[in-house]
Write a structure and sequence with these properties.
There is one protein chain. By secondary structure, the protein is mostly helical. The chain contains 29 helices and no strands. The radius of gyration is 43 Å and the shape is elongated. Keywords: Coiled coil, DNA-binding, Membrane, TPR repeat, Transcription, Transcription regulation, Transmembrane, Transmembrane helix.
Length: 635
């Protein structure tokens, strides 16, 4: 298979099996996104407002008025949200009051969203959702697109945390649909974040990372730097879940590096970081480090009343105790995590941990408690519910399963349409490639055939030269004398003349040396040859220029190549020797000089010539004999 065919096949395979057709971002791209983050942070002084530089914002707030002041106060809220809840709420309340005074409706809605988000951070999903639903009545994808995106994303977050995965996915996909139709970068950023969070909660970490990185693309584009810390944390977490704990630790090392250049990440983010790092260290058996990190995470969560984070942190600690064979502490933590999850309606935590407790109590010979938790788990899944909470769980789980089926069907239909369209595109590309390849192959074969004919002609001429040199060697002196007389007559009048007797003597001696193959001496040069001929270099150079129609170097190279061609034709062993040996045998001190001289003489490199020569002899040996050459009589 020639190179052209291989290249064509490779292009086709790349088109058919293009990894991007699966709409998955390769893991290698994580590094490229982190590098982009690093570059952005490196230039933070050029984007003080984007990086929520507090000194810059405080100074701006002192002089700002009207709507500009509202937006500055809202930026200060964002700057403090993960650092100081009190300061953040203070600035948000000021923005709310000023917006109401100015009848600045967008400012009022943004401040209300901030309150809803703060309630979500504290784990008060019910109150947060109430505010979200109120705001949602007043915004739309076209009227207030950014607020619409914020509210939709928060709704999806709350649904995910409650275990209402169908609503979470539906909300995220609806937002993504609006984003793609409007091509609004902010909506695309938020939609990808919502869907990433959904897949994270259902433990599809590959898709979660995929959407996370897509969202990060728009974060970088819009310079929404408040999301840098959370996104690095999410990427590290999902990298660990995809069985790359060392890669995850490297990402957290990057997190610490970034934190040196930016304001601190804040307690809310650090609680998540410590919890995730505990999971990573636990997965590689470094339990002491894991215990240190999960203890720190729980301390931050309880100190700041992050109800949202407590159940999951307690679960991590329970898993750690279980790994260190401390079953009693593990059971205690699982029970605490269920109690904390029930307080915020985190149904997925209740469901999973009740199943684990049922198994643990069975192993510790406590059948009564084991039955209780097994019953709870079964009630959540398929039994008739006995109280309002169980009813809610059953309904949500059933709706989630039904919605997943419908959503998967819808996704499959969309994928089928996309695949058909892609297939048509591939067919068109393949047809074009076939046409181009056919033309290219035809052109290549045509040129190759032409080159082969030229080469065969060169070989034939070399054969003729060999036969002629053998048949007329006896007439060489006569030809030389005739050549001297003929060439003497052609000497340009403008060129200095030398005595004919001297010239004939030099030429005769030169012809004699040619027969002795003087040119094969690697030390052969003008001065050495002139001493050998007992003449001066000036006369010798003039004779070669006038009689050989060439300078000394070209004259020597031509003698060497003319000597080589018959030898290549006659001597198979010599022909298949190493090129360096052939070059040295001709008097060349290096291969490059030999290659250059040969190509200048025949227009082809010696290696290619020898290959084609071997092929030509093979072809001739298989084909009918060519008629022998009939040489014309000379003179």
């Amino acid at each position: 298979m020639d190179n052209l065919t291989k290249t064509t096949l490779l292009i086709i395979l790349l088109l058919v099996f293009n990894p991007l057709s699966a709409k998955e971002i390769p893991v290698d791209s994580v590094d490229s996104y982190l590098n982009a983050l690093h570059s952005l942070v490196k230039n933070k002084d050029n984007f003080k407002e984007d990086f929520l530089d507090i000194e810059f914002l405080l100074h701006k707030n002192e002089h700002a008025k009207g709507k500009e002041k509202v937006l500055t106060l809202l930026s200060l809220y964002t700057a403090y949200i993960y650092e100081s809840a009190e300061m953040a709420n203070n600035y948000n309340n000021q923005a709310m009051a000023l917006s109401e005074k100015l009848a600045y409706n967008e400012g009022v809605l943004k401040a209300k969203y901030n309150r809803a988000y703060f309630l979500f951070v504290l784990g008060d999903f019910g109150e947060s959702m109430k505010m979200v639903l109120e705001i949602q009545k007043l915004v739309g994808a076209t009227t207030y697109p950014e607020i619409y995106a914020d509210i939709s994303t928060l709704r999806s977050y709350i649904y995910s945390e409650r275990g209402e995965y169908d609503r979470a996915l539906e909300t995220g996909l609806r937002l993504l649909d609006s984003a793609e139709k409007s091509k609004n970068d902010y909506l695309l950023m938020k939609a990808n974040s919502a869907i990433s969070h959904y897949y994270l909660r259902i433990e599809n970490y590959s898709k979660s990372l995929n959407y996370c990185l897509k969202g990060l693309h728009y974060i970088l584009k819009l310079k929404k730097t408040q999301y840098i810390y959370p996104k690095i944390d999410e990427i590290a977490r999902m990298t660990a879940k995809l069985n790359d704990p060392k890669g995850a630790l490297k990402i957290y090392a990057f997190f610490l590096e970034i934190e040196k250049k930016l304001p601190p990440a804040g307690s809310y983010i650090l609680a998540s970081v410590h919890s995730n790092m505990a999971n990573i260290y636990m997965s590689i058996g470094e339990n002491e480090k894991a215990l240190t990190h999960i203890s720190k995470a729980l301390e931050i969560n309880f100190e700041n009343n992050y109800l949202f984070r407590i159940p999951r942190a307690l679960t991590v600690q329970a898993e750690l105790y279980l790994q260190t064979n401390d079953t009693i502490q593990a059971i205690s933590n699982y029970e605490k995590s269920i109690e904390a999850a029930e307080n915020i309606d985190a149904f997925d935590v209740v469901k999973r941990n009740s199943y684990v407790l049922g198994q643990l109590y069975e192993k510790t010979n406590q059948p009564s408690k084991s039955d209780d938790y097994k019953s709870l788990y079964k009630a959540i899944n398929d039994s008739l519910f006995t109280n309002e909470k169980e009813q809610k769980i059953i309904i949500l789980e059933t709706k989630r399963k039904i919605k997943e089926v419908l959503q998967n069907k819808k996704i499959l239909e969309l994928e089928n349409k996309a695949q058909k369209a892609q297939f048509r595109g591939i067919i068109i590309v393949l047809i074009l490639l076939f046409i181009i390849s056919t033309i290219s192959i035809y052109s290549y074969l045509k040129v190759r055939k032409k080159n082969r004919l030229l080469l065969l002609r060169t070989i034939d001429l070399a054969e003729i030269q060999l036969r002629m040199s053998e048949k007329i060697s006896g007439f060489q002196n006569m030809e030389t004398q005739w050549s001297v007389e003929r060439k003497s007559a052609d000497i340009p009048k403008t060129q200095p003349r030398i005595d004919n007797d001297i010239k004939n003597i030099i030429l005769t001696k030169l012809v004699k040396l040619e027969k002795e193959n003087f040119f094969l001496d690697p030390n052969c040069n003008l001065h050495q040859l002139s001493e050998q001929l007992k003449t001066n270099p000036k006369y010798l150079s003039q004779v070669i220029n006038q009689e050989k129609k060439s300078n000394f170097n070209n004259y020597i190279n031509e003698l060497r190549i003319n000597y080589l061609l018959p030898k290549l034709l006659k001597d198979i062993e010599f022909r298949n020797s190493k090129l360096s040996y052939i070059a040295f045998s001709l008097g060349y001190n290096n291969l490059n000089t030999f290659n250059a001289a040969f190509k200048k003489r025949l227009g082809i490199l010696p290696s290619n010539f020898i290959n084609e020569l071997n092929n030509a002899f093979e072809i001739k040996s298989k084909s009918p004999a060519h008629p022998s050459y009939k040489l014309k009589k000379i003179g």
